[in-house]
Amino acid sequence: MLQIAVIPGDGIGPEVMAQAIPFLEWAQARGRSLAWTVFPCGAERFLATGCALSEEEFVRLRDDHDALLFGAVGDPRIPDGRHAEEILLRLRRDLRLHVNHRPCFPLLDRLVPLKGVAANEIRIDVLRENTEGPYCLQGETQPGQAMDFSIHTEAAVEILLREAFRLAASRGCRLHLAHKANVLKHGHGLWMRIFAGLKLQFPSVEALPIHADALLCALVQDPRPFGVIAADNFIGDLVSDLLAAFQGGLGLAASVSFSPQANHRCAALFEPVHGSAPDLVGLDLANPSGMILSAALLFRRAGWEDEAKAIESAVLAVLESGLGTRDLGGTLACGQMGQAILNHLPRYIAGI
Ligand code: NAD
Ligand code: IPM
Ligand code: MN
After folding, report:
1. Domain residues for 148?
2. How far apart are CA 87 and CA 116, in angstroms?
3. Which atom in ligand 2 lies closest to the alpha carbon of residue 237?
4. Cβ(84) – ligand 2 distance below 6 Å
5. What is d(CA 254, CA 295) in angstroms, rounded to the nearest whole number?
6. Mean pLDDT (10-residue bins), the chain, 352 residues
7. In sequence order, what are the beta bridge partners of 7?
8. Alpha-carbon span 177 to 199, nearest angstrom
9. Model's pTM, two decimal places?
10. 68, 165, 241, 270: which has the fewest C-beta neighbours closer than 10 Å?
11. Which residue's CA is minimally distant from atom 37 of ligand 1?
C-alpha cells in the first residue's frame, strides 16, 4: 500500500490540491493500492499556534509515508516566510531530498512563447540541488550590512551531479552545468571539480559547464540544443521558472524532489513549481494542471506508467481542445479545469 501524505498548504495550494485528489481516487478505483492522509500544515496553523509542522508530524511524515504530495506555502501575513521554512525547506533538508527534478516538456505549440519553436522541440530536465546553497538560511544583519551564507558540500553536489550524468546518459543528450565559478570561486569551484571528475566516469555524455547568465540568454534564443541542466539550489530555482514559461507558464509546471540514497521511508515529494499565488486567492482562477501533473509524476515513480501517461494525455487533450484557465488564455475556473482533465481520462477506466 502506497501511503501518501497530502499537504495542501497556503493560498491556491488547497484549491489546486482539491483538483488533484480525484486523480488519486481514480487510480484507487483502477485497483492501485494507495491511501492518503491530509496534513493541515500551513500559515493558518502557524498564526494560530506558532507551529507550522510539529516534530510528531515530521516523524509521521518520514516514517509512515512513502511520498508527499505538496500544494504550496507562502502567506502575505508572514512576510519573512518563517512557516514556509519550517515546512517546505525543512522537509527538503531533513528528508535529504537532494535532487529536485523539474522537467520542461511543453505540450502545445500555441503555449510556447518563443518565435518559431514547436512544443515537441523542447525537452529539458532541470536537476536542482535542493538542500544547500543559500537555503542553509545562515547569515546575519548588522548595522550597515547584511550577509547570507551559502554552503556546498561534496556529498550533496556529488549526489545531484551523478543523477544529472545518469539522466543525460540515459536520454543520450547534452548535460550543462549552470554555474558562476568565475565569481563564486569556493562554492562553484567545488561544483566544477566534481563535474570534471564525473565527466571521466561518463565518457558518453557531452558535459559542458556554462555561465548561468549566458545560459539564460542562450535558452531564450534557442532552447533546442539543451537536454539536462544541472544547477545549485539558487540558480536552479531561477532556471526552472524560466523553463516553466516555455511550457505556457507556472500553472503547467510539475516537479519531484527525491533522495537517491534515503535510509528512511519517505524519500520523494511531488509539487508544482508555482507558489501560493496570493494574487489569485479567492478568485477561482488558479490552473490546477501543474499540481495534477505532479500527481502523474508520483504515479510514474510508483511504477504506474499507464496512469501517469493517461493524466498527461488528458491534460494535452484539454489544451488541444482550446480550453484552459485564464493564464492559458481560457475562461475555465480552477474546478472546471480539473474536471475537464478528469473527463479526458480514458473512458474504460472504472470509477469516473
Ligand atoms: P507564485 O508562483 O505564487 O506566483 C507567480 C505568478 O504566477 C503570479 O502572478 C501568479 O498568479 C501566477 N501563478 C502561480 N501559480 C499559478 C497557477 N497555478 N495558475 C495560474 N497562475 C499562477 O510566486 P510568487 O508570487 O513569487 O510567490 C508567492 C508566494 O508563494 C510567496 O510566499 C513565495 O515564497 C511562495 N512560493 C512557494 C513555493 C512553494 O511552495 N513551492 C514556490 C514559489 C513561491
Ligand atoms: C520553489 C520556491 C521555494 C524555493 C521557496 C518558496 C522557498 O520558489 O519551490 O521553487 O525557493 O525553493
Ligand atoms: Mn521557485
Report:
1. 102-247
2. 41
3. 10
4. yes
5. 9
6. 98 98 95 97 96 96 98 97 96 97 97 97 98 96 97 98 98 98 98 98 98 98 98 98 98 97 94 98 96 98 96 96 97 98 75 42
7. 70
8. 11
9. 0.97
10. 241
11. 275
